[in-house]
Design a protein that fits this description.
By secondary structure, the protein is α+β, with helices and mostly antiparallel strands. Among the domains are: 98 residues; 139 residues, Wheat Germ Agglutinin (Isolectin 2), domain 1, CATH 3.30.60.20. Helix content is 43%, strand content 7%. It is built from 13 helices and 10 strands. The strands form 4 sheets. A 4-stranded antiparallel β-sheet has the order 3-6-9-10, with no helix packed on it. A hairpin with an 8-residue loop joins strand 1 and strand 2. Helix 4 runs antiparallel to helix 6, helix 4 packs parallel to helix 9 and helix 7 packs across helix 11. The chain is flat and about 160 Å long. Its main location: membrane.
Length: 579
């Protein structure tokens, strides 16, 4: 009996211990498990909702893709229809040309029994048939562009000179049409002025076997009068070299901002890739700056040389297009460069300029301050300032020299030490800022522009300056910009010329810049007079410009280190320079 009671008691104790164990530890575990279930339920619900949203997006995308495929099909059909229409029109033209040939043979042939006797007046009226036939026969004989009429053929051997070298000419290389250019030169016997008349005709290039697809490309090289056969004009500024093509994908004209529709003729520069209507060609921004082959991996992390081409002038295309648009629309805007544009617009424009293959149309940007902000942002975020880290202190020291002669001398010397991309870009920018300062409506004189562009152009001597250095440089930077803007326009203008143009600097006179005189040019091979005879002001012996007279001269030209470039005409040898 006692044993049974003890067994029951031990069993009861075990049950009670298990009950106490369950009461003490199981509740938190069950609560945690319930929370885990709730978290899983929420994640499941979120996944189901995301799945539904993704399905909706997928459905919408598939619908858009289907619509685009339909549009693409219609566009292809339209292109095929246009090609067939063109082929039919060319066949009709060829048929009409054969009929005209028969009529010409019937009317103008001589000594034939079938020929019609015409009077001299009638033959004169029908003379154009002979000209058209001759051009067509030349095209059928050779599939290349041929010279139709030579301007020298009417001149004698004595009076002949290469007059047509200075005439406006255009060369078309096309698979579907040929440009026939006729230049008539009239030389009066009484010694009067020579007159030249040019006529341009487009003759279709007919052939029986034609391609069903393809574009018509025309290479046009515009050679202005007096260019000597080089694509440079306007004082040596590099001009555009346009390529003509038929538009398949609509593009925007950079000068006017309007769309160039399907099937129309557009012009595209082969160097800088600017696109325009044929009638807007003269309004494209100059100089033509070829796009560089590559840009830095990340926008804003490269130096200036990474954004320029290998040909002079070495100016980033972004700077050229921004300044061109600002001068076109912004010279009447009060507070130009002082007011800021929308950051989002500036960022988008910079991305398009540095990443897109085509030139963005700045004429569509309504806010001119966004374009000025783009220019300042580009210069400010360069890895190295425009005046470089190495020359930062020399520029500041030169600007703070109290004597004007010495300050100008040091400034010229420091500018000549700049890398060519930095120097050319600085010259182009300073010329623009001088025009902005001359505009009264902008209310931005040299002092205001210097305060705005001081940190942007000058920067600091180190990549990460200390706060005290920033405070000190902020007071000195505007002085550098003021000194740069005070230099003559002719001095800056030489740097934006093309590489093969040598400026004539006889008219360049820098007041009080005594150390920049060159030897007398009265005699080509005679004795030279010293520069002291030409000084308007004689500086003291302690003057810096007097001490540096033999070593410091403004370095004209993009690559040469000579002091002053002389005129080409009338000189067989360059005048010696002071060493």
């Amino acid at each position: 009996m006692d044993t049974a009671v003890q067994n029951l008691q031990s069993l009861y104790d075990k049950l009670m211990s298990q009950v106490h164990l369950l009461n003490e530890n199981i509740d938190p575990s069950f609560i945690q498990m319930a929370q885990n279930f709730e978290d899983c339920r929420r994640k499941w619900l979120r996944a189901v909702q995301e799945l539904g949203a993704s399905k909706e997006i997928l459905t919408k995308t598939e619908t858009e893709r289907g619509a685009l495929e339909v549009k693409l099909k219609h566009a292809r059909n339209q292109v095929d229809v246009e090609i067939r229409r063109r082929q039919k029109a060319e066949a009709d033209c060829e048929k009409l040309d054969r009929q005209l040939q028969l009529i010409r043979d019937l009317l103008t042939s001589e000594g034939s029994s079938n020929s019609i006797q015409l009077s001299a007046e009638q033959r004169s009226a029908l003379a154009f048939l002979n000209t058209n036939c001759q051009a067509a026969s030349n095209l059928n004989t050779s599939r290349r562009l041929m010279t139709i009429d030579e301007s020298a053929s009417i001149l004698s051997d004595i009076s002949y000179d290469k007059t047509d070298d200075s005439l406006v000419s255009a060369f078309f290389l096309s698979g579907n049409e040929t440009l026939v250019t006729k230049t008539t030169v009239t030389v009066p016997t009484n010694g009067g002025p020579v007159e030249a008349i040019s006529t341009i005709e487009t003759v279709p290039y007919w052939t029986r076997s034609r391609r069903k697809t393809g574009k018509t490309y025309t290479t046009m090289k515009y050679l202005p009068l007096g260019s000597n056969g080089t694509p440079q004009n306007n004082g040596g500024v590099r001009l555009h070299e346009f390529v003509s093509k038929t538009v398949i994908k609509p593009e925007s004209c950079v000068p006017c901002g309007k769309r160039i529709k399907f099937g129309k003729i557009s012009l595209k520069c082969r160097d800088c890739r600017v696109v325009s209507h044929p009638e807007c060609r003269e309004r494209c921004p100059l100089p033509c700056i070829p796009n560089p082959c590559a840009t830095p991996v990340k926008i804003g992390e490269g130096i200036l040389a990474d954004y320029v081409s290998d040909t002079s002038p070495m100016i980033p295309p972004l700077v050229v297009h921004c300044i061109s648009e600002i001068e076109h629309r912004g010279l009447h805007e009060a507070g130009l460069y002082r007011l800021s544009g929308a950051d989002r617009t500036v960022k988008d424009l910079k991305e398009k300029f540095l990443r897109s293959k085509n030139v963005p149309v700045l004429s569509k940007v309504e806010d001119i301050h966004a374009i000025t902000g783009l220019l300042k942002d580009f210069l400010r975020n360069l890895k190295e300032p425009l005046l470089t880290f190495r020359l930062n202190r020399p520029f500041m020291d030169a600007a703070e020299v109290s004597d004007d002669d010495n300050s100008i001398a040091l400034m010229y010397q420091t500018i000549s030490d700049l890398p060519q991309p930095n120097r050319d870009t600085l010259a182009f920018l300073v010329l623009h800022l001088q025009r902005v300062a001359d505009s009264v409506e902008t209310k931005m004189d040299i002092h205001n522009l210097a305060r705005v562009f001081g940190p942007t152009i000058v920067g600091h001597a180190v990549p990460n300056p200390e706060p005290m250095t920033i405070l000190q440089d902020t007071k000195r930077q505007p002085k550098v910009v003021e000194r740069l803007l005070a230099l003559p326009v002719d001095y800056w203008g030489q740097f934006v010329m093309a590489a093969n143009e040598q400026p004539n600097l006889d008219h360049l006179i820098i007041e009080n810049a005594n150390c920049y005189a060159t030897p007398e040019r009265a005699s080509m091979l005679g004795p030279l007079t010293t520069p002291e005879h030409h000084f308007n002001k004689t500086p003291s012996s302690s003057s810096l410009s007097q001490r540096m007279k033999s070593s410091l001269t403004p370095r004209f030209g993009s690559k040469s280190k000579s002091a002053v470039a002389i005129s080409r005409q009338g000189k067989f040898f360059a005048s010696p320079l002071l060493k």
